[in-house]
Amino acid sequence: MKRYRIRLEDRTYDVEVLDDPRQDQVRVEVDGETFVVGVETVAAVDSGEVSPGVVSSPVAPTPKPSVVGGSTVVAPLPGVIKSIAVRAGQEVSPDDELVVIEAMKMDNLIRATRVGTIGTIHVTEGRQVTYGEPLLDYAD
Fold it and tell me: Would the pTM of this model clear 0.85, i.e. be above it?
């Protein structure tokens, strides 16, 4: 859609807005990495007019975790494991919270996409994860 080059604290970023900015939430790509941000209407300081502006939401919409072969949940984005809401042997249902990944100061809730029993948990709180890295396995 639209591309921008922004400068923040002596660093330059290439930013592309991937969705219509009139939506409540949009995807933006920053230096090749995709993030979801909330969009709110803010008052323009100079003109007194109201114009759309992009602001980050405190909790990002839930990224869809990838499930490899139906048994391994992998990180849908890079970040730091903020919390793990399940333990091995626990039964989960769709939409149950599994893990929270913090990325760019936003909490991204990773939720179960199916009914199952948690098997191996591959991550620990405070650990950095990369895109596609295994988070946990279903035992069944």
Answer: no
